[in-house]
Amino acid sequence: MPEKIVFYKYGQSPFGQRVAIAFLEAQIPHESCEVDVWNKPTWFVEKVNTIGKIPAITYGSPSVPHDQPSVDAFKLGESLLILEFLTDLYPSSGLLPSDPVQRAQARFFIDTAEKLPLALIGWFIQGASWHGIIDMANALQALLPQPSKFAVGDNLTIADIAIMPFFALLRLVYENGIGAYPAKQAQELKWALEAPELARFKAYVDNLLARPSMRAVFDEEATKEYLRNMVAMSLKP
């Protein structure tokens, strides 16, 4: 039986939301500890993740306070690595297919999808062209099997979970005009994402964002504040 997991997270971070969704979808028992991403405590950097990234987990820790993890506990950062670790701990969860080909397809989908966060940040924070987001939507649509609702096979896997929070973030950004871009671009991007040519991509996104696990971890108002803080920090000289 897997040992105790403590999940260190910041609720509005899409990287942490990936892991939170996996915990919910697979019903994995764990304890949670909220960490302020804007003011990380010293104990987190010294005792949990020395590079300071959130989320992180400890595994195999005895019952000790979350800010005093055991030196013997296994510690892991990077959200995608945590997702992979959870699939190994809980192979019957379905988070990763058992078929080797589908496992490879899931990992390839994740590798492709990882470019979407970069395109999103480049647009709404750095003022880059929104066309990079459309390029990514086309690339992901090309990988979607027909007529499945998911990235690989007939069930939700970490391939879907890895990108779900960023779809929610993207929609929140252009629907609320958050970012350092000309106002008209939000509507232009929305029209492009809803064009008939991307109908399968839109249906895929809608299906994922409607899942109870996604709704459970995504607080729109708190995330708006998080995004506005990101933009404000990027504009500081």
Automatic annotation (TrEMBL):
GO terms for cellular component: cytoplasm. PANTHER family: GLUTATHIONE S-TRANSFERASE OMEGA, PTHR43968. InterPro entries: Glutathione-S-Trfase_C_sf, Glutathione_S-Trfase, Glutathione_S-Trfase_N, GST_Omega/HSP26, Thioredoxin-like_sf. It comes from the Eukaryota. Residues 3-94 form the GST N-terminal domain. SUPFAM superfamilies: GST C-terminal domain-like, Thioredoxin-like. This is GST N-terminal domain-containing protein. It comes from Coniophora puteana (strain RWD-64-598) (Brown rot fungus). PROSITE patterns: GST_NTER (PS50404).
